[in-house]
Write a sequence for this structure.
């Protein structure tokens, strides 16, 4: 298996623009997680899905953030409109019931 | 509330030295999981180990060893005979067992380890 695949690896955008981050989990994994890593706040969970259904989105910082999982092999995290303080590395991870989390390579987002 | 504390922000050692990374956690759950992840300069998060709260056996994997002590709520990580390739940020993390065991993680702030030749 290729592991968790995230795209793009790097994204630079202007403030106010919409940004969409993408994630393909490992086949057979039924949990998907979105994390954000910043210097100030470290690694924090934004939202997670089980069988494509959002279970806990309490970590989503604002209404500008939204996440979807239309099927078992694809998820998106959207920021609209983006702000400079959204600059961070966004990680996607997937697990099965009794496994550790496998993380993607991350997307480094820079909002200027 | 759950919390993971890695008090050591940065550690610098010379190659071949042993180094211990400290991790202290807080949880009210009786069943939980503890993890260590490595983040090398390339940025990915690499899984190292998972332990459940009922298994206090120390574990050794090559040059890596882990000491889990429930009495002190600690899960420390030791690298023996450190190498330059061990240079990375190491994260300790906690997961409640009521949820998926592996993915809903509370991370510590990380310890940046620098191993100099």
């Amino acid at each position: 298996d290729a592991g968790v695949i995230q795209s793009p690896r790097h994204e630079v955008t202007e403030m106010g623009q919409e940004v969409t981050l993408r994630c393909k989990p490992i086949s057979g994994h039924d949990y998907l997680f979105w994390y954000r890593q910043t210097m100030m706040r470290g690694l924090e969970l934004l939202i997670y899905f089980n069988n494509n259904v959002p279970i806990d989105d309490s970590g989503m910082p604002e209404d500008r953030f939204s996440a979807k999982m239309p099927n078992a092999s694809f998820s998106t995290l959207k920021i609209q409109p983006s702000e400079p303080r959204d600059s961070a590395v966004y990680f996607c991870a997937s697990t099965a019931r009794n496994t550790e989390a496998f993380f993607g390579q991350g997307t480094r987002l820079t909002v200027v | 509330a759950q919390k993971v504390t890695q008090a050591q922000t940065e550690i610098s050692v010379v190659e071949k030295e042993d180094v211990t990374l400290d991790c202290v956690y807080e949880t009210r759950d009786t069943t939980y999981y503890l993890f260590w992840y490595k983040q090398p300069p390339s940025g990915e998060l690499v899984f190292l180990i998972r332990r459940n709260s009922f298994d206090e056996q120390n574990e050794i994997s090559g040059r890596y060893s882990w000491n889990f002590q429930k009495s002190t709520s600690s899960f420390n990580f030791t690298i023996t005979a450190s190498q330059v390739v061990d240079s990375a940020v190491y994260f300790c993390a906690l997961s409640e067992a009521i949820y998926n065991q592996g993915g809903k993680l509370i991370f510590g702030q990380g310890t940046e380890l620098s191993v100099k030749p």
